[in-house]
Design a protein that fits this description.
The complex is a heterodimer. By secondary structure, chain A is mostly helical. The mean pLDDT of chain A is 86. In chain B, the strands form 5 sheets. Chain B has a 6-stranded mixed beta sheet, with helices on both faces. In chain B, strands 2-9-8-4-6 form a 5-stranded mixed beta sheet. The C terminus of chain B is likely disordered. In chain B, a hairpin with a 2-residue loop joins β13 and β14. The chains are: A mainly alpha, B alpha/beta. At the A-B interface, α3, α4, α5 and α6 of A face α1, α2, α3, β4 and β6 of B.
């Protein structure tokens, strides 16, 4: 599981670095410190195996990224930060699941497949996100509300599907 | 964990979308894209209905307490490829895993097999392995599907029995076959029984010349006590109130071990032995001889559990019709003062009663720690027991006090050596 650990650490470093850089470029040093504090807490929690630290870390990083966008910081840096945090969060959970894994051969196969899948998701997310940041669309309030309703309904169905499968 | 794990990206996605739409900020919507792609990937690669088959094998289905048993479980995939499979064997309570883990996470391609091997141990009991829980999921671990696959197997752990030297019993009635129990009848044997007038056919070396010299007109021969086998009824006290725990130690487990050891000893001597487990219900093993009976008794002891019943709360309802008249009864019980009349009644009906009393008080004191209250409580309990013991002895009941940290054999032989009366000489005295 060494590769997954390395990628998890690198993702957290990359995500928090991007967020901190975005804050620093705009001279918001307090926000920069907040990002580094969250990343530090996440790293310590990971090392000490605190339960729920990855969930809290992702929620905090996403909140900081959203706040950064609202404050007018670099949206690209915020996007990179969120993708890094998402990868770190996913790999933390993956490594925890791997505690049940017994055979080294199986572990390597699972690790390789998981890393491939999460890197593909991260790459696609970055491409789509960066493209979306370049696209400039004028939406009326009605269109925005309709799109919002569509998104809420679609996500609701997706959530029900996910819950139903696990039940 | 899975629920929270699924909820978090969904909640963040909702929050970013709503915030972006509310503030009409497209950059916030772009920020939601990684989360949307992540959830979409989990949906696309979600697992289908798994088609799995499980087979289980045990290295032994009947072992002694403390022995380890290797459990092997094979889960084969008869359906499509499964990216992530978590196999968890649901262990029956009471089994301790000593090596390996009863769970494994692996990738299981179509036609592939996942093998799981671990070792378990138990003190005693019957254990039924039922189902295996299999959780399949996609690599991101968001969507999961759980199924239970049947893989039955049974394991019987017999109680540990320490080998005992011959336990000296002396019932009023014995059976017709030769054995080790003094029969209270003259005949051929080893122990001197009495003297009677010479009868034709008596061996010359049995003639008692000293007595014959005093009676010039007749000869007298020595008689020896016949030794035969006997009926032995073992009664195990399985009432809840008789089970005292001191830390991890249980008085009932010691009582079960003692009963198993006694059963083996009596059966080895050729006696006919029966067992009654007296607790929530009456679990009766009909008297019998030999190895088959030993197996029956050990299986009954493996299943024995303490329980509570209003009817069998005291020994008044001990069913004497199970035991042959005037046979030997061995009661393994800590015994309570209100049990005294029932035990005395057994004695009055002609049974020879031996009480084996496991004593856990030393371990209890160790578990409770030093203190004046503990010392006083122990002293009071000791005095109560001594009074009860005195009454039992007065009624002709034999009592073996067994501190459980000592070997049972030592306690039995130390006590019975003092208790067994000398044989009553009933032969004709010249």
């Amino acid at each position: 599981m060494m590769r997954a650990r390395i990628v998890a650490v690198a993702s957290l470093g990359f995500g928090s670095g991007a967020l901190a850089l975005g804050c620093a470029l705009d001279g918001r040093w307090l926000w920069c410190l907040a990002v580094l504090a969250v990343a530090g807490g996440w790293s310590v929690g990971r090392w000490r195996r605190w339960p729920g630290v990855a969930d809290a870390g992702l929620a905090a990083m996403a909140s900081l990224a959203a706040a950064g966008v609202l404050l007018g910081l670099s949206a690209e840096a915020m996007l990179l930060g969120l993708v890094g945090a998402l990868c770190a969060w996913d790999l933390d959970h993956f490594l925890r699941r791997m505690a049940h894994q017994q055979r080294a051969g199986d572990g390597r196969v699972l690790e390789r497949r998981h890393l491939g899948r999460i890197l593909a998701v991260a790459g696609l997310s970055l491409i789509l996100g960066l493209v979306a940041l370049r696209v400039d669309l004028e939406l009326s309030l009605l269109t925005a509300v309709l799109l919002g309703l569509l998104a809420v309904l679609g996500l609701g169905r997706a959530a029900r599907y996910l819950y139903g499968q696990s039940g | 964990m899975t629920l929270g794990r699924r909820l978090l990206p969904l909640a963040l996605l909702y929050a970013l979308l709503l915030l972006g739409l509310a503030s009409l900020n497209g950059e916030l919507l772009a920020l939601a894209l990684p989360l949307a792609v992540y959830l979409l990937a989990a949906l696309l690669y979600g697992p289908g209905q798994p088609q799995l088959h499980a087979a289980r094998s045990l290295s032994g289905d009947r072992v002694r307490g403390g022995q380890t048993v290797t459990v092997r479980l094979e889960v084969s995939n008869e359906g499509a490829d499964l990216d992530e499979v978590l196999v968890e064997d649901l262990l029956p309570p009471g089994l301790e895993v000593v090596d390996g883990t009863p769970a494994a996470l692996a990738r299981l391609p179509s036609g592939g097999t996942l093998e799981l091997s671990y070792q378990v141990r138990a003190n005693r009991g019957g254990f039924h392995f039922g189902s295996v829980r299999v959780t399949t999921g996609e690599p991101l671990g968001l969507s999961r599907r759980q199924v239970l696959i049947s893989a039955p197997a049974d394991l019987l752990v017999l109680p540990r029995a320490r080998r005992l030297e011959r336990v000296a019993i002396r019932p009023l009635r014995t059976r017709g076959y030769a054995g080790p129990v003094p029969a209270r009848q003259g005949g051929s044997g080893t122990d001197f029984f009495g003297v009677r007038e010479y009868q034709a056919g008596d061996p010359r070396r049995w003639i008692n010349w000293r007595v014959s010299a005093r009676h010039p007109r007749s000869l007298f021969t020595n008689e020896f006590e016949q030794e035969r086998i006997a009926d032995v009824g073992l009664v195990l006290d399985a009432r809840s109130r008789s089970d005292v725990a001191a830390g991890a130690e249980s008085l009932f487990e010691y009582a079960v071990q003692a009963t198993a050891s006694l059963a083996e000893s009596f059966l080895d001597d050729g006696n006919r032995v029966g067992l009654l487990v007296y607790g929530r219900v009456l679990d009766w093993t009909f008297p019998g001889y030999g190895k088959v009976q030993r197996e029956r008794i050990l299986r009954a002891l493996a299943r024995a559990r303490t329980g509570q019943s209003q009817v069998f709360d005291n020994l008044h309802f001990l069913p004497t019709r199970f035991f042959p008249a005037q046979s030997q009864l061995v009661l393994v019980s800590p015994l309570w003062p209100d049990d005294l009349p029932a035990v005395v009644r057994l004695r009055a009906r002609g049974y020879q009663v031996l009480v084996i009393r496991p004593d856990l008080s030393d371990l209890e004191v160790q578990a409770l720690g030093p203190g004046p209250e503990v010392a006083l409580a122990r002293r009071i309990a000791r005095i109560e027991w001594l009074l009860l013991r005195q009454r039992l002895l007065q009624a002709g009941v034999w009592v073996v006090d067994w501190p459980v940290q000592e070997p049972l054999g030592r306690a039995v032989h130390a006590s019975l050596g003092r208790l067994i009366p000398r044989p009553v000489v009933t032969g004709a005295h010249p």
